[in-house]
Write a structure and sequence with these properties.
It holds the Pfam family MLTR_LBD. GO terms for molecular function: DNA binding. InterPro entries: Cro/C1-type_HTH, Lambda_DNA-bd_dom_sf, MLTR_LBD. By secondary structure, this protein is α+β, with helices and mostly antiparallel strands. The chain is built from 13 helices and five strands. The protein has a five-stranded antiparallel sheet with strand order 2-1-5-4-3. The protein is globular, with a radius of gyration of 21 Å. 30% of the residues are buried.
């Protein structure tokens, strides 16, 4: 671990970012350029003290999970992320396999989407980031482990949860879309990849998946008009638009309702309900 290289790199990258680059308000006038240390810590989901010690060459070796969070918070490119890992004394992540490092270009667009559900997913359907409205509409899928990270697994193995967001008459179409998307990822990544392991697990556990897999349909189906179900506000009709990275390894999904429609009002209501729950959680007594 090169503590000096790590500290200088973190400081320089922090100084080069402005609050607007990461979706933060500039607020009052700043005495120093760039982001504050506490803002980087907040974005990376770590304590300010921990991040400060890294910049001051006093911290312990950060884990790969911490480095991944820092790379995302500082909007690093793939080359910059690799340098960060090397400076911290870790092997560089393989760029061929799916990565949880969000492409900076997608992240910048995502940061500006506050009034409509939006999320970024990997080629295997893993949710990498999602805003509060997306979590309210589709469920909070961040932080899942193992095969549960992947939407096709949840769709076929945990249908009581995954399919509750969709009308029953849309389940068959969505099943085909899930398998066609996984077939596309499998073709690009190969049988010895994470896609291959996911296909093997689903083939072992789901008869429905096995039957659809044999159809050999291949497509990445995102742009769509669909109805989503919410237990409190009811059905919401949305259009799903997608923005891919150049290698199509990640996709930004944006769900919008028709302007001045009842569905648009329901999405606004989701935002209000989410804020009320957040305040209620803050008032709840701690164990």
């Amino acid at each position: 671990m090169d503590r000096e290289a790590l500290a200088v790199f973190l400081r320089r990258r922090r100084e080069q970012l402005q609050p607007g680059d990461v979706g933060l308000s500039a607020g009052v006038r700043r005495r120093a350029p760039g982001l504050r240390r506490e803002e980087v810590a907040q974005l990376a989901l770590m304590s300010t003290d921990y991040y400060t010690r890294l910049e001051q060459q006093r911290g312990p070796q950060p884990s790969t999970q911490m480095l991944s969070s820092l790379a995302r918070a500082l909007r690093l490119t793939a080359d910059e992320r690799d340098y960060l890992y090397r400076a911290a004394g870790h092997a560089v992540p393989d760029r061929i396999t799916p990565s949880d490092h969000v492409a900076p270009a997608l992240q910048r667009v995502f940061d500006r989407l506050h009034d409509t559900p939006a999320l970024i997913i990997s080629t295997l359907g893993e949710t990498l980031v999602q805003n509060a409205l997306a979590a309210a509409l589709l469920g909070d899928n961040l932080g899942r482990a193992g095969f549960e990270r992947y939407e096709p697994y949840r769709w076929f193995i945990q249908p009581e949860q995954a399919r509750a967001h969709y009308p029953e008459d849309d389940h068959a179409r969505n099943s085909r879309a899930q398998v066609a998307g996984l077939r596309a990822a499998y073709g690009a990544m190969g049988p010895d990849s994470q896609a291959g392991m996911l296909v093997a697990e689903l083939s072992r556990r789901s008869e429905e998946f096995r039957a659809l897999w044999e159809r050999h349909e291949v497509a990445q189906r995102f742009a769509d008009h669909k109805t989503l179900l919410h237990p409190e506000v009811g059905p919401i009709e949305v259009d799903c638009q997608v923005l891919f990275t150049e290698d199509r390894g990640q996709a930004l999904l944006v769900l919008t309702a028709a302007p001045r429609s009842e569905d648009e009002e329901k999405i606004r209501l989701l935002g209000v309900l989410g804020a009320q729950r957040f305040r209620a959680d803050e008032r709840a007594p701690r164990a």
